Amino acid sequence: MATWRELLALLRRCRHERVQEEALRCMGAVVAHLLELPQGRAPEGNLQGDLEAVWKDWTAEIEARSDPALPHSMREAVGGAVLASRVLALTPPEEGRGRSGQAGESGASVEAVARTWLVALRLMEDEDPEIRAVAAT
User: CB neighbours of 41 closer than 8 A, spacing ≥ 6?
Assistant: First the structure.
């Protein structure tokens, strides 16, 4: 989780947009890695609470940075991060299976998946065709 915290700090504290964009793209890759772990476990063996914080941070950052008023490059970075995260490939839990509020076997919250989808849909409606193309991938 140290990598996640460092990326989040870069994203939130650095004033250089290029660094923020690359941190966001890397966060998408970290999310993809977390989805591959056994349900409810972080890389250092931390419990579910750490993953819940990651999902909260993830959705807050991609929602805020997909705003149409932000620069093209930032919205494009959000699209790339969402794509890299593989969150959109998750399936909802089958009735009677899996833990309540989680998507499939991943440990991702259903809310985080839904909010990620909303960001992707917002980007698919962007006025810039390049952003729409990234989001539609």
Answer: 47, 107
pTM: 0.84
> CA–CA distance from 30 to each of 38, 41, 86, 126, 127 (Å)?
15, 14, 10, 26, 29
The model's pLDDT over 65-97, given as tens digits with 9 standing for 90+, comes to 999 999 999 999 999 999 999 999 987 655 444
Residues in the chain predicted with pLDDT less than 50, given as ranges, are: 47, 95-100
Q: Are 84 and 32 within 8 A, CB to CB?
A: yes
The residue whose two tokens read 């990620």 is 116
Q: Read off the amino acid at residue 99.
A: R
Residue ranges of alpha helices (H) inside the chain are 2-13, 17-36, 48-65, 72-85, 110-124, 129-136
Count CB atoms within 10 A of the CB of residue 91: 11
Task: Judge whether 111 and 56 are in contact, CB under 8 Å.
Answer: no
Q: How far apart are CA 36 and CA 57, in angstroms?
A: 19
Q: How many CB atoms lie within 10 A of CB 131?
A: 22
CB 71 within 8 A of CB 17: yes
